[in-house]
Amino acid sequence: MSTEWEGVEAKKPLMAARNNRASSIWVVVASTAVAVAGSFVFGISVGYSSPSQEGIMQDLHLSLAEYSVFGSILTIGAMLGAIVSGTIADRVGRRCAMAISDVFCILGYLLIVFSKNSVWLDLGRLSIGCGIGLLSYVVPVYISEITPKNLRGRFAAVNQLMICCGASLAYALGTCITWRTLAIVGVTPCLLQLVGLLVIPESPRWLAKIGHSGALEEALQKLRGKETDISEEAADIKV
To answer: Where in the cell is it found (predicted)?
Structure first.
């Protein structure tokens, strides 16, 4: 009887460790889900111009050349956003950088929704481009900085998956809803990400970079679980 009791007692720490790892993984999963909402916006933005072409050209009386500018100016905005993405993410943090990109995308989609001419359309598309250019850098960086080494590759792959899902959704919905409504759909994941950014932890590596050791350990503990010994990983990050 005593042997069975000792066996049960010996298993308790192991069970507690497993439960702790499981709960901490969900924090990483939730944080990744919030981050890849930006990847979803990226996909919707890339796919938006194709199904909306006929409706926009008819409603706003655009020529093919004018619409071509609207479709292609996204890449110019993305280039501008990508150029400054590293600087912004390093200065204000990964979460704040994602919030800034959401503001650009929301502003851009609202300009498209209420557009009366090609100028509004182009400004909106340019703003969206700046937003997704910033997202293209900060989302994969954030994911790679919060995930454990053994899971990093699998979590990073979700970024590309959500870009493809966003583009596919834009193509599918564009066949059955108007171009203005489709632009409103593009705003939705931006709003969801803004709300999620309020609760997910900041990147421990960025916190280490700016010298906030206490905040680094707090964020890392939240990501790895309350009972996990983070001393070794925290020391590696600080190096």
So the answer is: Membrane
**Per-residue burial over 84-110, b = 16 or more CB atoms within 10 Å of its CB, e = otherwise:** ebeebbeeebbbbbbbbbbebbbbbbb
Select from 1.20.1250.20, 2.60.40.10, 1.10.1200.10, 1.10.287.3510 the CATH code of 27-200.
1.20.1250.20
- pLDDT of the chain, 239 residues: tens digit per residue: 444 544 444 444 444 444 445 556 889 999 999 999 999 999 999 999 999 999 999 999 999 999 999 999 999 999 999 999 999 999 999 999 999 999 999 999 999 999 999 999 999 999 999 999 999 999 999 999 999 888 888 888 999 999 999 999 999 999 999 999 999 999 999 999 999 999 999 999 999 999 898 899 999 999 988 888 888 888 888 87
Global pTM reads: 0.88
State both tokens at 45.
């933005």
How far apart, in whole angstroms, are the C-alpha atoms of residue 12 and residue 28? 25
At 13, list the tokens.
């720490």
> Which positions ≥6 away from 90 have C-beta within 8 Å?
206, 209
Nearest to 31 by CA among 169, 139, 177, 190: 139
